[in-house]
Amino acid sequence: MLATSGALRRHAHRAAGRTVDRCPGTLAAGDAGAASPRTLGRRTFLVGASATALAVALIAVMPGEARARTPFRGVDVRPRAEWARGLGPTGPLQQERPGDTRFLLVHHTASSNDYDPDDVPGLLRGFYRFHTGPDRRWPDVAYNFFVDRYGTVWEGRSGSLAGPVMADATGGSQGFAQLCCFIGNHQVEAPTPEAQRSMTALLAALADTHAIETAPGATTTFVSRGSNRWPRGTTVTTTTIAGHRDMSLTTCPGDAAYELVREVFPAAVTALRPTPP
Ligand SMILES: [Zn+2]
């Protein structure tokens, strides 16, 4: 029932004369066989909703919609409580300081594209176990948000709906980004249209929240806190919507998703955002 180290694939690739790893937060096996929570208790929802209300502007929600999903600037995000079954952080989580969320980073899990909607909570628990276990020893699941192939958006790292929690899985933590991860392997196969639409909406919501310019070609500059591509102290200029490979020596988010990051998402995200007066 539990994913084991032997069930995880951690392949390194040789490219351009140097070793590049898969996204260090990725694995190929979750625990999709585990039962999924079918219902969300009222108390669970209230905890998630009150946390959200602390830091993000809520949109108007019809009463009938409020039970199951938490609104996040126009995006329905399934709160962590819907998959975590009480699994919490194993260590302290840091918040980005105001103004320090400067760009948005797209990942993929490099796991199978073949799963049912009911499998997703179990997959997320599998990622959590891998990230907090002996292979990675991070204090929580690495990414702030996940997007599944059916277009459902999930809160990942604890507290991400309430504010910009620092993430992991960037070859270190060069910081200054929120991490949004497709559940699937997008080296060859592109994310589904549903997943692309939801990722676009999620990126737009985060860009609104953190006042990030997203028009094609928009860049930001920061001093790296350290990754395996950008050593600590390096001044890095990046597009404000970027792929994990822009920050680390990795193939993540896969060639097919990275093409979207470069060629599609900046204009699509910007089109969803309010036009400045
Ligand atoms: Zn990645």
Folded structure, characterized:
The protein is α/β, with parallel strands linked by helices. It has one domain: Peptidoglycan recognition protein-like (Lysozyme-like, 3-Layer(aba) Sandwich). The chain contains 6 helices and 11 strands. The strands form 3 sheets. It has a 7-stranded mixed β-sheet. Strand 6 and strand 7 form a beta hairpin. Helix 4 crosses helix 6 (265-272). Residues 1-21 and 28-68 have low confidence and may be disordered. The structure holds zinc ion (ZN). Keywords: Membrane, Transmembrane, Transmembrane helix. Pfam families: Amidase_2 (PF01510). One of its GO terms (molecular function) is zinc ion binding.
Calculate the mean pLDDT score and round it.
79
General form: globular
Classified by CATH, the class is Alpha Beta
The biggest beta sheet is recorded as:
7 strands, mixed
Protein traits:
277 residues, alpha/beta, Lysozyme-like, two-stranded antiparallel ribbon, globular, binds zinc ion, zinc ion binding, PGRP, membrane, N-acetylmuramoyl-L-alanine amidase activity
Please give a quick description of this structure.
This protein is an alpha/beta fold.
Helices and strands in order, then pairings?
Layout (H helix, E strand, L loop, with lengths): L11 E4 L2 E4 L20 H14 L14 E3 L2 E4 L2 H4 L18 E6 L11 H13 L12 E3 L5 E3 L21 E6 L10 H18 L8 E5 L11 E5 L1 E3 L11 H9 L1 H8 L5
Parallel strand pairs: 4-7, 5-8, 5-11, 6-8
Antiparallel strand pairs: 1-2, 3-4, 6-7, 9-10
Family: Belongs to the N-acetylmuramoyl-L-alanine amidase 2 family.
Keywords: Membrane, Transmembrane, Transmembrane helix
GO molecular function: N-acetylmuramoyl-L-alanine amidase activity; zinc ion binding
